[in-house]
Every structure is written in structure tokens, then in C-alpha cells.
């Protein structure tokens, strides 16, 4: 099952911080989310949204920073996603 | 009796989660709604809505995720529906 | 006396539920209103409303579902009506 | 002295209900206002209002129903008027 | 010193009610302001305001009724004025 | 160091009232600001602002009245300025 | 890692005030931020933003004053940035 966003929507997945324990062992994907950082997992087609032409500027795999409190959290097959409008994405991290 | 939505409206019906009891018996359509997941049961004609051209992008039978708290709940012949604007639909589940 | 709505306005009249008493007698038009269901009794001409072209899509006699809390209740010759904008009508019941 | 409304404004005067006393005497124009019913006493020229073309659709003498709480009450020569935008007029009573 | 309003702004000066004392003496310009009535003392050039073409329809000397609570009160050389947008002027008194 | 405003912004500096002490000595620029009065010290280029063409109508040196509570106060080299949009300027004082 | 802003967004970095201790030693970049002053570290491409053409007018290295409470604070590699829309930038400091 996968999410196919409509219009100018983008599906994001939170980026987990790798954490190193005191003993030096790296625990990938452990507990802590990097706030507001996420990876793009699906991109809507853009086009005419609310009467305005929108061109999509992010692509799957981009790491992005998005506006706090924007978007809607959804759960699918026990995975959590955030669906935002592209205009809620502030910047791409390169 | 059926609902024929106007403009960019879409009629949704909540998707019920199948639940398996401890004894292993599947209880289809039992109690719990999957939050924000719904099936499209009717789609408006789109066209000029609030002065803006809207093309409908979902179709009857699509499983969709929609924005929490959006739409209006209506009851017809003891069935419950949610009528939303297409722009409140975030993504199609494929 | 009759109401001739302006612009994109539609005059609605609540649909009363027929109720059957315990003794089996049907009491047509008794007390209880069907929530949000109404019959269209007059339709405005549409046209340029707030700078936007509106085409009327409902007609007198249509049974419709409209948004809760929308519209204005008016009383004329002891009859009660609700005047809504067409965009507050969610769906036609067929 | 008379009021000449600007733009899409309309000057309304409340319609008073004729009341019959117990002794059968009709007291025209007595106390009680008919809620939201008014007679049009002056109509603005319409034209470009807030950047949008408005055509006036009511005329002096029309009896109208207008939205509760809309408009501004003004007093001129001890007469009370309500000045509304035409879009606050819901329907003409014929 | 005089006020030259910008855009669609209009400078108003409150109209004072003449009051007659019990002894019959007229006290011009005494205490009481006529609510919402004012005289136009300066008119902006109109033109493109917030992206919309505005044509000025009032002129210096017009007596007008304006919307309660609209506009900004300013004081210049101990005189008090109210500066409103033309769209806050409801009607001219003729 | 100087402030170069963007778009339709205007940099204002409060006009101080000259105050005469009881002994008759004029204290220029003393304590009290004239409310809402200011001198224009820099003017943005105008042009397309929020999708709307804006032509600047004030110039450096103009004395203006601006809307209470509008604008942002900034401090540069211990001088205080208020940066407003031109549309917050109500009138020029001539 | 660097931030590449989308649309009309601009990445800002707070300007720190150099502080001189009592003993006369300059402590560059010490504690105190200059309120609302920042340096531009990255500029979005502009173009069609929310249906409106935006031309970017600031460039990397500009010192700017921006509206209090606007923008979103983000943290990347332990550096703190503020991402604002260009329209939240009031003026360039030259």
C-alpha cells in the first residue's frame, strides 16, 4: 500500500537521528526525530490548485525542512507520515 | 436514495478495520473506524467552484486519506457519510 | 407572498420526518425535522456573485443536504424557511 | 434631507407590523418590527465595488429580507434606517 | 497645515449639532456630535488601491454618513479629524 | 548605516514636539512624540508587491500621518524608526 | 550540508553584537543577538509563489531587518537559522 498525494501535496517521513551510546555503538533510527526534518516519499502532480498553477519543486528522496505544525499526520501499515502542501516546505537540505 | 454531490464535493464512507478476536475469529466491519481513511462513494462534477476551475481527480471506489475535522457528517437511511471538498482529500491509497 | 432569492441564494424548507406512533398510526409531517435535509422552494438567478460567475445547479423540488449552521432562518406568513447560498448545499438526494 | 447611498449600498426602512388590539382596532405601524423585513428606500449606483462589478438588482419600494446583524443603523431627521450592501439582501418578497 | 489623504482615503470632520437652550438661544457647534455624520474636508486621488481601481465619488463639502468604528482619528493643530477609506462611507446626505 | 526599504515599505522617524518651558525657553525635540506624525526618511521602490502593482506616492522629507499600531519599530545606531507599508500612511501634512 | 530555500524564502542568520568587556577586550560574536537584524545566507529562486510572480530582491551577504515573530527557526549542524518569506524582510541595511 502506498500514498499517492493529490494536487500540491507531498508525503514526508520523519528523519531519525542516529544516536551513539556511551559505549560507542551506533543505534541507527533510534528514538529521536530530528525536528522538522523529513524525507520526501511521494510528490503530488501539482497543476491547478485552488485556481493557481503550482509546479512541484521537490522530488522523492529530497531531505527537507518544513514548517512546524503544518501538515497532517497519517498512519498507514503502522508507518507514520506527514502530508504537507509544497508551500509548507521551507528548504531542501543538500 | 443516493447522494449526488454538488461542485467539487466528494461523498466518503468510513473504512472499518477488520478485527481479529483473541480466539482468532475475524470480525469484519467491526467497531473501529480507521481514522481519516475512507472510500469514495460519490464524486461531484467539479467545474467552476467559487470562481475557480476544479477538475475532479478521485473516482468512486478510491480509498483516500482526508484532513481531520474537515467535511460534514450526514446521515441517510441510517448510513453515515462524510461530505468533503476534494481539496480536503490528502492522498489516494493504492 | 413568496420569496424571490437574489444572486446565488436558494430558499429551503425543512423536510419533516413521518413518524409512526406505537399504535401504528402514521403522523405525517410531525414534530421532528430531518437534520440538514430540506426541499428547494426557490432558486436565485445566479450570475455574477461577488465578482464570480455562478451557475445554479439545483432546482425547485430538489431534496438537498446542506451545511449545518449555514444560511439564515426567515419567517414569512408563519412558515419557516432557510435561505442559503448554493455553495452551502452539499448534495442532492435522489 | 435624504440618503444617497454609495456603491452597492441600499438604504432600508423597517416594515412595521399592523397590530389589532383586543377591541378590534387596527393600529397601523405600531410598535413591533417585522424581523429582517424592510422596504428599500434608496439604492446605490452599483458599478465597480472593491474591484468587482456589481449590478443593482433591487429597486426603491421592494420589500426585502436581509441578513440578521448585517448593515449599519443610521438616524436622520428622527427616522431610523439600515444601510446594507446589496449582497446582504437575501430575497425580495413578492 | 492641511491633510492631503493618500489613495482612496477621505478626511472627515464631525458635524456638530446646533443646540437651543431653554431660553431659546442657539448655541452653534455646541457639545454634541451627530453620530456618524461628518463633512468631507479632503479627498484622496483614488486610482489603484490594493491592486483595485478606485474612483472617488465624494467631494469636499459633502455631508456623509460613515460606518461606526471605521477610520482613524487624528489631531492636527488642535482640530480633530477622522480619516476613512471611501468604502467606509455609506451614503451622502442631500 | 542606512535603511533601504524593500517593496512598498517606507521608513519613518517620529516628529518630536518642540516644548516651551514655563520660563519661555524652547526645548527642541524634547520628550513628547506627536502621536502618529512622522517624517519619511526612506522610501522603497514599489513595483509588484504581493502580486499587485504599487506606485510610491510619498517622498523623503514628507510629513505624514500613519495608522496607529501599524508598522514595525526598529532600532539602528541608537535611532528609532518605524517601517510601514505605504498603505498604512493615511495622509501627507502640507 | 546547506539549506536551499524554496520559492520566495530566504535563509537568515542572526547578527551577533560584538561586546567589549570592562577590561576593554572585544568578544566577537558574544552572547547578544541584535534584535531583528540578520545576514542573508541563502535566497530562494522566487518565481510563481501562491499564484503571484515574485522577484527576489535580496542577495547572499545582505544585512537585513525583518519583521518580529515572522519566519521559522531551524537548526542544522548545530547552527540556528531563521527562514522567512522575502516579504517579511523590511529593509536592507547599507
Provide a descriptive summary of the structure in words:
7 copies of one chain form a homoheptamer. Chain A contains no helices and 11 strands. The two termini of chain A are 29 Å apart. Helix content of chain A is 0%, strand content 56%. In chain A, the strands form 3 sheets. The first copy, chain A, has a 6-stranded antiparallel β-sheet with strand order 9-10-2-5-8-11, with no helix packed on it. In chain A, strands 3-4 form a two-stranded antiparallel ribbon. The radius of gyration of chain A is 15 Å and the shape is elongated. Chain A has 94 residues and is mainly β. The first copy, chain A, has a single domain, classed as 10 Kd Chaperonin, Protein Cpn10, Chain O, CATH 2.30.33.40. Chains in contact: A-B, A-G, B-C, C-D, D-E, E-F, F-G.
Tell me the structural class of chain A: mainly beta
Q: How many separate domains make up the residues of chain A?
A: 1
Q: What is the subunit organization of this protein?
A: homoheptamer
CATH topology title of chain A: 10 Kd Chaperonin, Protein Cpn10, Chain O
Give the low-confidence spans of chain A.
Answer: none
Superfamily at the CATH H level of chain A?
GroES chaperonin
Helix content of chain A: under 10%
Would you count the extended β strands of chain A for me?
11
Order of helices and strands of chain A: EEEEEEEEEEE
Distance between the termini of chain A: 29 Å
Second-tier CATH architecture of chain A: Roll
Report the biggest beta sheet of chain A as strand number plus sense, adding barrel if it closes.
Answer: 6 strands, antiparallel
Please compute the radius of gyration of chain A using only Cα atoms: 15 Å
The biggest chain-chain interface is: A-G, 20 and 20 residues
Q: Strand sequence of the main sheet of chain A, in spatial order? A: 9-10-2-5-8-11
